[in-house]
């Protein structure tokens, strides 16, 4: 557990199924999750040429879910903000559960790769395990891959060849193809991002 963790956060009820509407002010729990993620990712940058702040990515994932696809499950939206904290920072699952409850922790755990494994193994596991994810985790997987393909289409990491971009785009599709039928709007958004990514390899 890192020292910047706010000690005053209260965990969300683990059985909560709170809904948010796109017209209402954000909930207290959602804002706490955003603050937590921003603190955890504060020194990280994306691999794009602009080195944009890493927190932009989880915010984009939450935006896709809530604003673009109409997903209002508060636990899903909070987990979207937190989905890379354990994988890419020193955050623990215990910390997530303490601050935000069991439901959010379980969703984050489902979409967290084991960084002790080789990258190729982790990528194959995402394909192999996608179909067995919970419905909530599948929503985040769809939004996460959509956000990543949008980014790689317009601002790929420095040094990526066209072949590497294409391989990444096709890998994203291989993962999402395992969870088709989860959410029509999110799948449509992913397909648009996939087409955008493929177009980027032809320019």
List keywords for this structure.
203 residues, mainly alpha, Hypothetical protein af1432, globular
Question: Summed up, what is this model?
Answer:
The protein is an all-alpha fold and 203 residues long. The protein has helices at 28-40, 56-68, 74-82, 85-88, 93-100, 102-110, 119-129, 135-154, 162-176, 184-200. It is globular and about 45 Å long.
Describe the model.
With 203 residues, this protein is mainly α. The chain has a single domain, classed as Hypothetical protein af1432 (Orthogonal Bundle), CATH 1.10.3210.10. The protein contains ten helices and no strands. The chain is globular and about 45 Å long.
Kindly report the average pLDDT value.
90
The structure class reads: mainly alpha
Number of helices: 10
Tally of strands: 0
Proportion of strand residues: under 5%
Instruction: Estimate percent helicity.
Output: 55-70%
What is the C-level CATH assignment?
A: Mainly Alpha
Question: Roughly how many Å apart are the termini?
Answer: 45 Å
Could you tell me the CATH topology label. Answer: Hypothetical protein af1432
Shape by Cα distribution: globular
Question: What is the name of the CATH superfamily?
Answer: Hypothetical protein af1432
